[in-house]
Amino acid sequence: MSNSKRVLKTLSPLFLGMSLLFIGNGLVVSSLSALLKQREVGEIAIGLINSCFFIGAIISTLTSFIIISKVGHIRAFAIFSALFAVCSMFYELSDNLYFWAFLRAGLGYCYYALLVVIESWLNQRAKNTNRSRILAIYEGVFYVSFSVGILILALNLRPTQIFIISAAFIMISSIPLNLIRIKEPEIPAKKSVSLPKIFSIAPLALLGSVIAGVLINGFFSMATIFILSQNFSLSQASYFMTIAMIGGFVSQFFIGQLSDRYGRRLAIILATFISLLSAVLFLFFIGQIHVQFCLAFFLGSGVFCLYALSLARANDMLEHKSQSVEVGRTLLFSYSLGSLLSSTIMGFMISFFGTLGFIYVYIALLFILMVFAITQKSVPFSDRRSYNPHTIKTIAIDKLEAKKANE
């Protein structure tokens, strides 16, 4: 058996565990906005509650490594998965919105801590010869599993059933991890980030990562509100989100090849144009769900590539590749900042402009990004690095990859 196959076989319990984690997270994350909408909670309040997820996520990236370093990765996974499940089930205890916001922050904290554990293992096992294959499987597991979680909403379950099912997936996800025998990976030391410094080096990459954070996580948090506000069903909302994710998954391969050959700037312009055009067309097909399904595919195909392209653009712009750790952390911080603001921005826009407020955010930000990209210069082919697809899930993975590459 080749070394790559042996590594993949060793990691198969981890891939199984993470698939269960992503299913549970996809279900609970995508369902909360719909449940709040059904209880006639205002769009602004829904946006603010959803933003608490990313407050917890940012806190997690700054503190979760302390727990992991003290108890080890396997025990940390069990701890955070148990807390995640508790936060999911506790939604049934009260309808108080402040309580729901607190639980939402708890979900964000636990979810990102779990991803730190998972991605530490992946980076510990990944070598130059099999890194692309491992990351490709990771991407596939995320897209498929998260989509399955969203599709469970199409079953029209009661809130109690949604919370119990999501909690069950999260709790079961820790079982396969205990089957892995592997050396505990190290937690990298914290380093400061500098937005002004990165903007001076790669302004397009920084702007792209912020806008990607707003649009991607705004989609996960508020797309259900966009569909439900048109008087469509929760099942149709789940299909809408799943189709967009399929578009994002498929386009990763084409956009990656295009950016390697013709440059990140052109790829960012193309991805932005595709999403912008589809967003504009939404204005003419409000109330026509089947057309919106088609448009969702193209919206997702462009938007879900923006962070990966921004990261590749930043790495291409570096004179000293040793800066890749700082750049990766800074771009992920800017992405998290955009994610934190995403639900609130879209909640305000929907509240003031109605259903189309959701689309207005996409049109405005995609137009700004495309115009800015057009004004930037291309990077010479000799200075480009290989494109790697990145699903935005945590601040840990790029930091760990860059650290390992520099060792």
Automatic annotation (TrEMBL):
The keyword Repressor does not apply. The chain crosses the membrane at residues 12-32, 44-67, 74-91, 97-122, 134-155, 161-180, 201-228, 234-255, 267-289, 295-312, 332-353, 359-375. It comes from the Bacteria. CDD domains: MFS_YcaD_like (cd17477). Residues 10-379 form the Major facilitator superfamily (MFS) profile domain. Keywords: Cell membrane, Membrane, Transmembrane, Transmembrane helix, Transport. It is found in: Cell membrane. It is a multi-pass membrane protein. This is MFS transporter. It comes from Campylobacter gastrosuis.
